[in-house]
């Protein structure tokens, strides 16, 4: 019953977003290009690739950035830069931007050879002895996530960005994950495991 309730909650949250217009989003994306690039693939490794990401996920993040700013960080996702960018956006603006970036192709990426063994083991199987859930359970075998359930695409993502987010989940600096699922997993990961996973998903196809 708990699993069913979670699935229904996820579906309901994703269906609540406005219908986005990719062409309108393109016209509104000029300022986003400064960090995410004109093609949505980021200009530096610590910035996320948002090209090809699920529109519902992108829209949720923008809403969460705005929520954190309006609640003084008590809710949502704290990030001073993104919070400031999201504050003036309307619900339709967010939907349009999400639709635009979701329509773009993500650029290719690779996995460091040194991270394949550990990263692949954790991604595929987790660690049952420590209660670490396999990443594939939510993000899928190829890291594509699922748009309906709200799990993001992580394949091809910048490794440095993934590393920063896992560290934030582990340290409690980021808390906008559904039912604290990412915080529960990240809390059990070592620095070496976070590095291996971050680099592994970058080259996952």
From TrEMBL:
<dbReference type="InterPro" id="IPR024167">
    <property type="entry name" value="Cytochrome_c4-like"/>
</dbReference>
<feature type="domain" description="Cytochrome c">
    <location>
        <begin position="20"/>
        <end position="105"/>
    </location>
</feature>
<protein>
    <submittedName>
        <fullName>Cytochrome c4</fullName>
    </submittedName>
</protein>
<feature type="signal peptide">
    <location>
        <begin position="1"/>
        <end position="18"/>
    </location>
</feature>
<feature type="binding site" description="covalent">
    <location>
        <position position="135"/>
    </location>
    <ligand>
        <name>heme c 2</name>
    </ligand>
</feature>
<dbReference type="Pfam" id="PF00034">
    <property type="entry name" value="Cytochrom_C"/>
</dbReference>
<keyword id="KW-0732">Signal</keyword>
<dbReference type="GO" id="GO:0009055">
    <property type="term" value="F:electron transfer activity"/>
</dbReference>
<feature type="binding site" description="covalent">
    <location>
        <position position="35"/>
    </location>
    <ligand>
        <name>heme c 1</name>
    </ligand>
</feature>
<feature type="binding site" description="axial binding residue">
    <location>
        <position position="82"/>
    </location>
    <ligand>
        <name>heme c 1</name>
    </ligand>
</feature>
<keyword id="KW-0479">Metal-binding</keyword>
<feature type="binding site" description="axial binding residue">
    <location>
        <position position="139"/>
    </location>
    <ligand>
        <name>heme c 2</name>
    </ligand>
</feature>
<feature type="domain" description="Cytochrome c">
    <location>
        <begin position="114"/>
        <end position="205"/>
    </location>
</feature>
<keyword id="KW-0574">Periplasm</keyword>
<dbReference type="GO" id="GO:0005506">
    <property type="term" value="F:iron ion binding"/>
</dbReference>
<dbReference type="InterPro" id="IPR050597">
    <property type="entry name" value="Cytochrome_c_Oxidase_Subunit"/>
</dbReference>
<dbReference type="InterPro" id="IPR036909">
    <property type="entry name" value="Cyt_c-like_dom_sf"/>
</dbReference>
<feature type="binding site" description="axial binding residue">
    <location>
        <position position="182"/>
    </location>
    <ligand>
        <name>heme c 2</name>
    </ligand>
</feature>
<dbReference type="GO" id="GO:0042597">
    <property type="term" value="C:periplasmic space"/>
</dbReference>
<dbReference type="InterPro" id="IPR009056">
    <property type="entry name" value="Cyt_c-like_dom"/>
</dbReference>
<dbReference type="GO" id="GO:0020037">
    <property type="term" value="F:heme binding"/>
</dbReference>
<keyword id="KW-0813">Transport</keyword>
<keyword id="KW-0349">Heme</keyword>
<feature type="binding site" description="axial binding residue">
    <location>
        <position position="36"/>
    </location>
    <ligand>
        <name>heme c 1</name>
    </ligand>
</feature>
<dbReference type="InterPro" id="IPR008168">
    <property type="entry name" value="Cyt_C_IC"/>
</dbReference>
<keyword id="KW-0249">Electron transport</keyword>
<feature type="binding site" description="covalent">
    <location>
        <position position="32"/>
    </location>
    <ligand>
        <name>heme c 1</name>
    </ligand>
</feature>
<keyword id="KW-0408">Iron</keyword>
<feature type="binding site" description="covalent">
    <location>
        <position position="138"/>
    </location>
    <ligand>
        <name>heme c 2</name>
    </ligand>
</feature>
């Amino acid at each position: 019953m708990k699993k069913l309730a979670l699935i229904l909650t996820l579906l309901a949250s994703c269906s609540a977003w406005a219908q986005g217009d990719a062409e309108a989003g393109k016209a509104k994306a000029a300022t986003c290009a400064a960090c995410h690039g004109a093609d949505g693939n980021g200009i530096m490794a610590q910035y996320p690739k948002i090209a090809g990401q699920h529109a519902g996920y992108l829209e949720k993040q923008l809403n969460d950035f705005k929520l954190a700013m309006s609640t003084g960080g008590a809710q949502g996702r704290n990030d001073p830069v993104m919070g400031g960018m999201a504050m003036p956006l309307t619900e339709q603006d967010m939907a349009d931007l999400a639709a635009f970036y979701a329509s773009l192709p993500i650029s290719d990426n690779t996995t460091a050879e040194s991270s394949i063994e550990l990263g692949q083991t954790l991604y595929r199987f987790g660690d049952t002895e420590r209660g670490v859930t396999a990443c594939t359970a939510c993000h899928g075998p190829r890291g594509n996530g699922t748009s309906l359930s709200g799990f993001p695409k992580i394949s091809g993502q910048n490794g440095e960005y993934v590393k920063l987010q896992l560290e934030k989940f582990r340290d409690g600096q980021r808390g906008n994950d559904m039912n604290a699922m990412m915080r529960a997993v990240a809390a059990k990961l070592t620095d070496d495991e976070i590095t291996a996973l971050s680099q592994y998903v970058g080259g996952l196809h």
